[in-house]
Amino acid sequence: MPSPLLLHTASSWRFGSFTE
Fold first, then answer.
1. How far apart are CA 3 and CA 19, in angstroms?
2. Separation CA 14–CA 4 (nearest Å)
3. Residue 20 has pLDDT above 60, yes or no
């Protein structure tokens, strides 16, 4: 089970990539 912090970071990275 991945840590919430890591998951949150991954989500932010993906969202940022889509918004760019």
1. 24
2. 15
3. no
Tokens of 13: 């990275």
Which DSSP symbol is given to 1?
A: -
d(CA 5, CA 20): 22
The pTM assigned to this predicted structure is: 0.20
Distance, in Å, from the CA atom of 10 to the CA atom of 20, rounded to the nearest integer, reads 15
* Token duo for residue 20: 């760019």
Half-sphere exposure of 2 (CA within 13 A, CB side): 8
Amino acid code (one letter) for 12: S
